[in-house]
Design a protein that fits this description.
Layout (H helix, E strand, L loop, with lengths): L1 H24 L6 E5 L6 H17 L3 E5 L6 H8 L7 E6 H10 L11 E16 L8 H11 L5 E5 L5 H13 L3 E5 L3 H9 L5 E5 H9 L4 E5 L25 E9 L4 H15 L2 H9 L3 E6 H22 L5
Parallel strand pairs: 1-2, 1-3, 5-6, 5-7
Antiparallel strand pairs: 3-9, 4-7, 4-8, 4-9, 4-10
Helix pairs in contact: 2-9, 4-11
Length: 326
């Protein structure tokens, strides 16, 4: 009797395991939603729609993009963190969500390391140091010298997208690396920043390559250096900060796909494999490059390592520069 009972229990457990495996293997069985915590039209939205289109073909289900902007990406990020962990609600956002805000804000409704299953980083987004055309500095080293000369006069003014933004952090990295005091001036976005530089309101500015490259090519502002390990195709004549002898300025934004924590491993693996294949597609890589981004595929572990590294780096920069977000 005992032997028959044990055999029955084993058979039942095997049946349950087989059923669970079949259920996971069947994923996806319904449409998938990718939440983007920005308004439509930006680079994040464009990357999400590109992924959604390709994932739909790869997985055999429709994949839609839902824009949920607000509170510097917190609304959308929190919505995904609280979503059912079944693989049907995903988050496509940038390093602002995963590392910048968590490093600068005292409290958030989500934890970048523990609220998500990290699928992959799919694109890198370098930033560029800009100078107004009338500035007596045509290289980043000359700008550094000028910034140090202005340190005891209140500091050279440079444009950012506001306290704690990517340009603000990159600007503080530059000031710290060259030993200068600089004064950040906030603008609502790239268009306002470029207008302010053309008008002489600020001497320098930090912007994304995707937004700034057309303005540089049009001769409205000068590009002095870009972040990242290599030059960008949109500004091939502009050196990296490392090439210019200032490797400490290392801020590079990025875009990544995540799912709510506790999403089943087979589902995460399915998404991971699909995204890896998509990011190897030459057409996809060209489309991402055309957005002035660098197409990559950094899977879960590398994604987590990037978060951990940047939380430390940005936290240290913010502390030394006294950057705080309420």
């Amino acid at each position: 009797m005992t032997a028959r009972f044990c055999a029955a229990v084993m058979a039942f457990n095997l049946a349950v395991a087989a059923y669970a495996g079949d259920a996971h293997a069947a994923y996806p069985e319904q449409p998938i939603k990718i939440v983007v915590p920005f308004t439509p039209g930006g680079a994040t939205d464009a990357v999400a729609r590109l992924l959604a289109n390709k994932l739909s073909g790869s997985l055999g289900q429709s994949v839609i993009v839902e824009n949920r902007p607000g509170a510097s990406t917190v609304i959308g990020a929190d919505a995904v963190a609280r979503a059912q962990p079944d693989g049907y609600t995903l988050l496509l956002s940038g390093s602002t969500t995963y590392t910048v805000l968590p490093a600068l804000k005292a409290s958030l409704p989500y934890d970048p390391m523990h609220s998500y299953e990290h699928i992959a980083i799919v694109a890198m987004a370098p930033v560029v140091l800009l100078a107004q055309n009338g500035l007596a500095a045509t290289t980043v080293q000359q700008a550094a010298t000028l910034a140090k000369q202005q340190s005891d006069k209140g500091g050279l003014m440079y444009g950012t997208f506001g306290p704690g933004s990517a340009p603000h952090l990159a600007g503080e990295m530059f000031a710290e690396a060259v030993g200068a005091k600089m004064m950040p001036v906030p603008y609502k976005g790239s268009a306002q920043l470029i207008t302010a530089m053309i008008g002489g309101e600020v001497a320098l500015g930090v912007d994304t390559v995707s937004s700034a490259a057309p303005q540089v090519r049009a001769g409205k502002v000068r590009a002095l250096a870009v972040t990242g390990e290599h030059r960008v195709p949109q500004l091939p004549d502009v050196p990296t900060f490392a090439e210019a002898g200032i490797p400490e300025v290392s801020f590079v934004g990025w875009y990544a796909l995540a799912a709510p924590a506790r999403t089943p491993a087979p589902v995460v693996d399915t998404l991971n494999r699909a995204v890896e294949k998509i990011m190897q597609d030459p057409q996809v890589r060209k489309a991402v490059t055309d957005l002035a981004l660098e197409p990559v595929f950094l899977p879960g572990q590398a994604f987590q390592a990037q978060i951990a590294k940047e939380l430390r780096t940005f936290g240290d920069v913010a502390k030394r520069a006294d950057i705080k977000l309420d």
